[in-house]
Amino acid sequence: MKPQIIVIKLGTSVLTGGSKKLDGARIVELVRQCHQLHQQGHKVIIVTSGAIAAGREALNYPKLPETIATKQLLASVGQGKLIQLWEQLFSIYNISIGQMLLTRADLEDRERFLNAQDVLKAMLDYQIVPVINENDAVATAEIKVGDNDNLSALAAILAQADKLILLTDQEGLFTSDPRKDPTAKLISEIKTIDSEVKAIAGGSISGLGTGGMTTKLQAAEIAGKAGIEVIIAAGSRVNVIIDIANNINVGTLIKPKESRLEHRKYWLFGAPPAGQIILDKGAIDAILLKGGSVLPKGIIKINNNFSRGAVVDICHQDGYSIARGVTRYNSDALKRIAGHHSQEIIKLIGYEYGAVAVHRDDMITI
Length: 366
Prior knowledge:
Elements: E1 5-10, H1 12-16, H2 24-39, E2 43-48, H3 51-58, H4 68-91, E3 97-102, H5 104-108, H6 110-125, E4 129-134, H7 148-159, E5 163-168, E6 189-190, H8 195-199, H9 213-225, E7 229-234, H10 240-245, E8 252-254, H11 260-270, E9 276-279, H12 281-290, E10 299-303, E11 311-316, E12 321-326, H13 331-337, H14 345-349, E13 363-365
Helix pairs in contact: 2-4, 3-4, 7-9
EC number: 2.7.2.11
Binding site for ATP: 9, 168-169, 210-216
Keywords: Amino-acid biosynthesis, ATP-binding, Cytoplasm, Kinase, Nucleotide-binding, Proline biosynthesis, Transferase
């Protein structure tokens, strides 16, 4: 099986097993499955809830008013406890983790998005498991993603993931609320999230988390637009992560609206180009014939001013476009490194965002 990038979102109810505190036995079993995916060559990203629950446990369940400040207090206490637990359990399998705390502002600003993407990619390249959570201790209502279901969808887009697994206290989405209707049937596959599907989505059973089925469908819509398939399943099911990775029918599969490539084409060609990168013949041949990236050495000229992360046309020196892509450097930096070897980037501009000006993964040929 082709190695995949798999994002696994774990709700508070999954991590606590429905109790008031984090369930170490439950979590170590989930870590074991992640280790097995690593052994199969897959790359795993964890989006974890549970900081507030960990904070309550650490403070011996204090009676506090339900305000943003007290929730942030609990999150700030619990975040360290939560990440320490993940670190301890992954270390059983000699796997290192890296923590990423995100807010909506980190994902809506193009440069911060790219910086987060660079860090995420670097961790995955070095077989480090990113453990992502919303930065509840500092986030305000205006900059919060809102819940970790939606955060996991944005993380999946950030990582250009193949699968997003939303583990919860239910087997998946049912035809009606199984807590009230014993005749409710599991919906094994959803091709379109329409008003009828949204109408049957219910809330969280445990009351410990912020997300129910409604936010999971919202996350599936976000991820689906980027060509990522989403699976909602029970975190308590034996080998649930392994089975999903092996394409065994588990829970509710929500099909993406389009392939990742089609989404990429739509996004790149839908955005007006901010400028042009003019290449020599050797660089153009490397892109068209060998599937290469745009290297500084092959750049002849930069037209227009643009920022890092802008969509630009990649052109022959006669003026016609051969590709369109997302630049990893702004126009000023590209002008300074144009015609030079990648090893010289730091010497020329004092920093680097990698050896390429436009990576092949961020480019579509015309």
